[in-house]
Amino acid sequence: CYGLSFVAVSTNPLPYSTARRHESVSKTDSLVSPAFLTRRTRCFRASRVCATRSESNQDATSSHPSSAAVHSAGNVRKISFCQWCGGQTKHEVPHGEEKMRAICTVCGKIAYQNPKMVVGCLIEHDKKILLCKRKIEPSYGLWTLPAGYMEIGESAAEGAIRETWEEARADVEVQSPFAQLDIPRIGQTYIIFLAKLKKPHFSPGPESSECRLFALDEIPFDSLAFSSIFVTLKLFIDDIRMGKLNFHYGTINK
């Protein structure tokens, strides 16, 4: 199960839409309900939703007790050996820090574990959304937006374009950021961009068994791979219903 909290920034200057004003909005979807308004942001607290599927990070969580280090908000891997010299590590709080770290007993280097960035594209074409059916684990056989881990040396937008090509063989143009979704417990941040097809061509890449355009009322919400994709699509549909696209920031508390 996970809880959701959102901030839709009403001052976001999307190039082809008008920012949402501060009047009250009645949500037609039960996922998110208005909680309170501030002068420049709209905040939402979502109802509790059940999910059994993991996010993209395959090694970020584990039910094994040795996989969790103390002094951490989420689950992190317990590192036993140094990645630089191979020496055995000890786990303690370094001087001047507050969290437990893996420290090499040979070379003294500290192994820091940082969140991973997942980037992807929400592609609308002919009033339909492009989804890919996963051909790999996790969430084999379920639908997702084309997305994956950022690589060193590329921007978030470049990574989203690359992942879209790898998973859907689609050449896209990024138009604007749409959502940033943090999942602290598993150390992930999703950045999803609105994008357009440069050419109306797409086909499954090596990690996909099928690629397909779905009308908004045909999106298979019961067969989506990840909670982050579920939330992104719900937010997009809500914005379309309101006639105004916004940038959304949210935290998924799994």
TrEMBL record:
Species of origin: Citrus clementina
Keywords: Hydrolase
Name of the protein in its database record: Nudix hydrolase domain-containing protein
Superkingdom per UniProt: Eukaryota
GO molecular function terms noted in the UniProt entry: FAD diphosphatase activity
GO biological process terms held by the UniProt record: flavin-containing compound metabolic process; response to light stimulus
InterPro entries given in the database record: NUDIX_hydrolase-like_dom_sf (IPR015797), NUDIX_hydrolase_CS (IPR020084), NUDIX_hydrolase_dom (IPR000086), Nudix_N (IPR029401)
GO cellular component, one term: chloroplast
Pfam family, one: NUDIX
Matches recorded under PROSITE patterns: NUDIX, NUDIX_BOX
Domain Nudix hydrolase: 114-237
